[in-house]
Amino acid sequence: MTQTTITVTTEGPGLYEFTGRVAGFVAECGVREGLLTVFVRHTSCSLLIQENADPDVQRDLDAFFRRLVPPSNDPSMRWITHTTEGPDDMPAHIKAALTQVSIGIPVADGRLALGSWQGIYLFEHRDRPHRRQVVLHLSG
Q1: How far is 60 from 7, CA to CA, in rounded Å?
Q2: pTM for the structure as a whole
Q3: Is 47:122 a contact under the CB 8 Å cutoff?
Q4: Cβ contacts of residue 41 below 8 Å, gap of 6+?
Q5: Domain boundaries, the chain
Q6: Domain boundaries 2-139, corresponding CATH code
């Protein structure tokens, strides 16, 4: 077993790809076959495996989630009571609950077994920049 924590810096809402950093970690470990767990240590962002060939995919996903869960100061969100940390906080928690904070990725022949167009993304749901901690745990 090998484990590390990396930091993904965000500049506000959107998808931030960090596949290369994860692939580098797997290569350094020298594990030929195994399972990589990727876990984000926060409740207002999430993780996705998504297409990395066309940036329109990331823009459309972000736009969809913004429409699905608008800020708490939007009239449709009057029912929200947790507003202490700003109008983007509780919607960020909802978006994280709808997605995932942990992803399992097989490792085969010492590499991530991702498809041709798949990338690993941190999906930032808050409006301001953050430094997000992501734990990588490789079991072989």
Answers
A1: 25
A2: 0.95
A3: yes
A4: 5, 132, 133, 134, 135
A5: 2-139
A6: 2.60.120.460
